[in-house]
Every structure is written in C-alpha cells, then in structure tokens.
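Data deposition worksheet. Section B asks for the primary sequence of the deposited chain exactly as it was used as input, without tags or linkers unless they were present during the calculation. Section C holds the resulting structure in token form. Section D is free text for depositor observations; keep each observation to a single sentence. Incomplete worksheets are returned to the depositor.
Section A, Depositor: J.P.
Section B:
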Amino acid sequence: MINRITSLFNIKYPIVQAGMIWNSGWRLASAASNSGILGLIGAGSMYPEVLREHIQKCTAATDKPFGVNVPMLYPNIEEIMDIIVAEGVKIVFTSAGNPKTWTSWLQDKGITVVHVVSSVKFALKAQAAGVDAVVAEGFEAGGHNGRDETTTLTLIPMVKEQLEIPLIAAGGIATGRAMLACMILGADGVQVGSRFVASEESSAHQDFKQVVVDAKEGDTQLTLKELAPVRLIKNKFYSEVQELYKTGPSVEELKTLLGRARAKRGMFEGDLEDGELEIGQISGLIHDIKPVAEIVQDMVAEFEEAKKSITSL
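Section C:
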C-alpha cells in the first residue's frame, strides 16, 4: 500500500499504533514498527529520563521509523521536547494542547508533526498551525476524548470535506474491515489503540489486558468531562464517580476523588477495582491477547479481503 500516510512516515501499511499512557513503551512501539506500521511511544506516562531510556531501547530494537506521542498538558514539556530532539526522533504526535506551540519548533529540527483532534474546528486549527497530518479521533476511542461525542463515522467525512493535509482516522478501529471503512470515508490511514493494549508487547498489566478481552458491549463509558473526558471500563472507581455525580460535585471534588496516579494503578499495576481503566468501545470486539505482528497481519489480511468483497455489493 502506497499512499500519503505510508509515504509521510516511510512505512509499509497506513496504520499507526497509538501512543497510549501506561501501555505504549518501547517494546510495543518497536514491535509495531517492525511489523510495517508506525509505532509510537506514549510519553504521557513517563518522566523525561524514563522517556529517554524508552527512545534509546526502541532505537536499538528497530531500524524502522517510530515516533513519540506527547500530550502537551503534562509538566516538563520543554525537557521532553529537548530529549526527543537530542535522541533523534523524527516523528512526533502532539495532543491535548495548542499545535501552534511546538509545531514549527519541531519541524525546524526536521521532525514530522501530527496533531490529534476530535472535531472539524480543531482539525482546521491544526492545519493552520502547519502540522504535517491530523489524527481525527471519534467518540468511541479509549482514554481521553472529545467533549462533543462525535462518532468516527461522522467525524471523518466532515473533517475530510475541509482538510487538505493527510488524515488519520482513530476511534473504534481494531479490524481490517474498520480500516477499510474509514479509508472509504476519506481517511488516508488509521490509528489503532485498544487492539494493541491486548498485545503481548503492551506494557499494560496482564490483568488489565484480560479485562479488555473480557469486556462486552456497554462495559465502557465516557465520563469526567469537567476535568478531561475519559472513557473507562465500569469498575468500582467508575461507580464511585457516578455516585459523586448524583451530588452535583464541584470540579475540585471530582479532582479529589480522582487523586493522583489512578491510571497507573489501574492499567500498569493491575488494580482493577480502584484503578482508572481506560479503553475504547471496540474492546467488546477484542477477544484475545496476541503478538503485535499477528495483530497487524490479521488486520491487513482482513482489509484486503474486505476490499475484494466490496465488488459484490
């Protein structure tokens, strides 16, 4: 497959492994890149020196392109960006912030910049800021999400209608059929998160991976919009959030309940009761834990088979 995304990143397939906190360390990113897609290290859960270590280990584990996902709302952002440049990373995905802040600075250093958005409005702002591509993420996605609850099925064609730069679809994509559907709607490629959480190379706790595999339709919900909207597996912590909402809580009360490092407790340490378990709606369609290479092979094979079946419609 050769298109705008494979050419932009110099990869074999137009698939990006999402840079997810507590899931996307160097093992996942390097395995993804070695499989012919773009692997991303999730910098959001890493102190600067930990990020440096993951970049160095990823560089040693693959000779293929890989990148780093950087949520711009995190502290130490200047140090993180300096490390990315110093370690020779050539692709950066930014999110949760104004793309104008870092895009030109990174591009001046030879780095390709992609920005993650959840609406047409912010896709156009990212394009105006000069980014090389945009990830448009629908309401189905796991982790932090858009407030407007626009689904991938409607978001992608609306963004495509107005965008000129390459477009990557995200949210609810775990199969080759979903990949084909998004590309028919106008995407040049797809970003996949939840499916790679349930991979052997993901840095998520094994118990969290099993929860993802066991999840059924309706087991996730978008919540905490007053802080930063996040899609969670319904567990004890989620129930506590819903009980607090019945009292009409202030933002400070929600922050107090959330506390610190709750996502780490859930996804990385395996606290399935009191941890924050972030995952997408597509978890209901994920039934096993497999090596990244096998996940990619299955997606590509299903994509090609689905393409052939279109002619019979």
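Section D:
The mean pLDDT is 95.
Residues 215-282 form one domain.
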